[in-house]
Amino acid sequence: MASGLSMTFFRRLSNVSLPPTTLTRMTPAGAKITCSRSRGYQDFPDAPRVLITGSLGQLGIGLAKVMRERYGRENVIMSDINKPARHILENGPFLFADVLDLRGLRELVVNYEIDCLVHFSALLSAIGEQNIPLAMQVNIEGVHNVLEVAKQFGLKLFIPSTIGAFGPDSPRNPTPDVTIQRPRTIYGVSKVHAELMGEYYHHRFGLDFRSLRYPGVISADTMPGGGTTDYAQMIFHDALTTKQHDCYLRPDTRLPMMFIDDVLRATVDFLETGSDKLSMRTYNVTAMSFTPEEIAEEVKKYVPDLEVTYQPDHRQAIADQWPEVFDDCNARQDWGWKHRYDLPTMCETMMNALVPQYNQSNNAVDAIKE
């Protein structure tokens, strides 16, 4: 079933002629594409063409960069409803795409010979709770549209899920792949809906649907956006500017986390894994679990006089419903997932990335422990 359909992921593209558009940076038809692959597509000479929706977020920008290095710059098309920065346009193809416009999505898939659809468009947890009708529209209707497009054109479809797909009735330490979920945020409910609809389309229509439940994601490339796990990014910026961090969670709130490089590598490895190796369609994936107090102690190794205060707000109630520790043994067993970053190596990497940025802008604190 899915293994047969997955052949569409490797459609021959050497003679595809792309329609002109002022929003893209496309090479002429027949331009030579050079791809380096460490694993996955060795048996197939052609690179897949990938469309990423909602690609201007933290994960979309990073995944586009990784995929372009593997499959070729012009084979990975970013899309969003927002205007991209100049450097985004200069780094590869970008298109306007509204996931609520089913006809528009179909046209993009046909006109640009898409093989794989990565669907990042969504309103996240804290933001979704502030605008439930819009979250339902984007997170549920948008999923229906990409499912239909993927089914119609035989695409491989990846829709990420989240720790927010679990609720207060779920086992929290550890949280297995298959268990009671019952989330109590619209974001979590919509992600469970996406998981179940994707599995239904897989079993009913043979759709090659895949999903990873991401934990909190930490990155030096983007500023935190106020999400429930974003304190784990903000503490680095606060340490390097004011040396004062006000955390909106209790110091003992344990949550699963991953550094973004691990997240992106897990996503690509998962997409490149043959369907015959997958025992399920939705997997937990993680690297570490820590509390605000634990990450603060690690950051203090670099900024010893960092002061941290704790003033829990509405996000504490959300975090209290989420897993403390993810059980991702199935991902490790089925397709060889293995993280590279733990808490100390993640903190070291974040500091190495952020200190030069703040020094360049003259906003870094004077005392950074070498």
Task: Please tell me about this protein's structure.
The chain has 370 residues and is an alpha/beta fold. The protein has a single domain (2-217, 256-288, 325-341), classed as Rossmann fold, CATH 3.40.50.720. Helices cover 39% and strands 14% of the residues. The chain contains 13 helices and 13 strands. It has helices spanning 2-5, 58-71, 86-90, 102-111, 125-130, 132-153, 186-205, 231-241, 260-272, 292-299, 314-319, 329-335, 343-360, and strands at residues 50-53, 76-80, 94-96, 116-119, 156-158, 161-162, 208-214, 216-218, 244-247, 255-259, 282-284, 288-290, 307-310. Strands 1, 2, 3, 4, 5, 6, 7 and 11 form an 8-stranded parallel beta sheet that branches. Helix 4 (102-111) runs parallel beside helix 6 (132-153) and helix 6 (132-153) packs parallel to helix 7 (186-205). The radius of gyration is 21 Å and the shape is globular. Residues 1-45 have low confidence and may be disordered.
Helix content class: 25-40%
Low-confidence stretches: 1-45
State the secondary-structure class. Answer: alpha/beta
Order of helices and strands: HEHEHEHEHHEEHEEHEEHEEHEHHH
Q: What is the β-strand count?
A: 13
* The number of domains: 1
Described by strand count, sense and barrel closure, the largest sheet is: 8 strands, parallel
Spatial extent as radius of gyration: 21 Å
Multimerization state: single chain
The CATH topology is Rossmann fold
Number of contiguous helices: 13
CATH architecture label name: 3-Layer(aba) Sandwich
CATH class: Alpha Beta
Pfam family, one: Epimerase
Domain NAD-dependent epimerase/dehydratase: 50-285
Protein name: L-threonine 3-dehydrogenase, mitochondrial
Pathway: Amino-acid degradation; L-threonine degradation via oxydo-reductase pathway; glycine from L-threonine: step 1/2
